[in-house]
Amino acid sequence: MTVASAVAIDAAGVVLDADLVVPDDARGVVLFAHGSGSSRHSSRNRLVAQRLHRHRFATVLADLLTEPEAQRDAQTAALRFDIGLLAERMTAIVDWAADPQPLPIGLFGASTGAAAALVAAADRPALVRAVVSRGGRPDLAADVLCQVRAPTLLIVGGRDRAVIELNRQAAELFTAPHQLHIVPGAGHLFEEPGALAEVADLATSWFAGHL
Q1: Residues 6+ apart with CB under 8 A from 93
Q2: Whole-angstrom Cα distance, residue 112 to residue 108?
Q3: For the whole model, what pTM was predicted?
Q4: Based on CB atoms within 10 Å of each CB, which residue in 39, 97, 139, 172 is the most buried?
Q5: How are beta strands 14-22 and 3-11 bridged, if at all?
Q6: How far apart are CA 129 and CA 140, in angstroms?
Q7: Peptide bond preceding 125: is omega within 30 degrees of 0, i.e. cis?
Q8: In whole angstroms, what is the distance from residue 69 CA to residue 211 CA?
Q9: Looking at the DSSP assignment, which residues form a beta bridge with residue 107?
Q10: For 53-108, how does the pLDDT look when each residue is reduced to its tens digit (9 = 90+)?
Q11: Coil, helix or strand for 203?
């Protein structure tokens, strides 16, 4: 039986809303860091999460901004690129997931959330076992990429040329095992038929191999 629940996470001085799903005999937990202007309700992240559930991974989809912050960001876009703030909260979610008896932890980050996930992985090398970035901006975490110890998979759409180049440049800074996978014909949001399913398959395989 799979158990789903809404939880509140104390994270760096604020309380963040999150959705926790735990399958029977879970083999690990994947924490999601959403991208620019998104939230825990992201349909794309939820599709990936559903695939992970079928392979016995628990998931935590958390809002990295409080509701007032999200409203302000929707008007000004002032916080979605504040990687320091997002990473601090992502690190707090990692600590929450690890207490008291942790499952192996993986991080899945989209867009700017990928940078936050990578900073959290660098901050918690003993806890984070694997990272997957979907259409991510690892370049925004360039200063810490050499400190990331978790094997990292970078997934980018084949038509997202600017982000492909940013990921290629960032990949040169990794010292941990890493791969760059380009999904042919996909754009930044992987809206093309079959593109997001391929992302879900790639992420599931990566976590299965490293968690």
Answers
A1: 9, 11, 16, 18, 31, 60, 62, 120
A2: 11
A3: 0.94
A4: 97
A5: antiparallel
A6: 21
A7: no
A8: 33
A9: 31, 131
A10: 999 999 999 999 888 888 888 888 778 889 999 999 999 999 999 987 779 999 99
A11: helix
CA angle, residues 125, 43, 73, in degrees to nearest 5: 75
* Cα–Cα distance measured from residue 66 to residue 210, given in angstroms and rounded to the nearest whole number: 32
CA distances 13 to 61, 107, 155, Å, are 19, 22, 32
> What are the phi and psi torsion angles at 112 (to 5°)?
-65, -25
Residue with tokens 């976590």: 207
Sign of CA dihedral 179, 196, 25, 94: positive
CA 2 to chain centroid: 22
**Tens digits of residue pLDDT in 99-157:** 877 799 999 999 999 999 999 999 999 999 999 999 999 999 999 999 999 999 999 99
Burial 42-76 (b: 16+ CB within 10 A, else e): bebbbebbebbbeeebbbbbbbbbeeebbeebeee
DSSP code per residue over 167-193? HHHHHTT--S-EEEEEETT--TT--ST
Q: Terminal CA-to-CA distance of the chain, rounded, Å?
A: 21
Gap between the Cα atoms of 87 and 24, Å rounded: 30
pLDDT digits (tens, 9 = 90+) for 174-195: 999 999 999 999 999 999 999 9
> Which two tokens mark 20?
């926790």
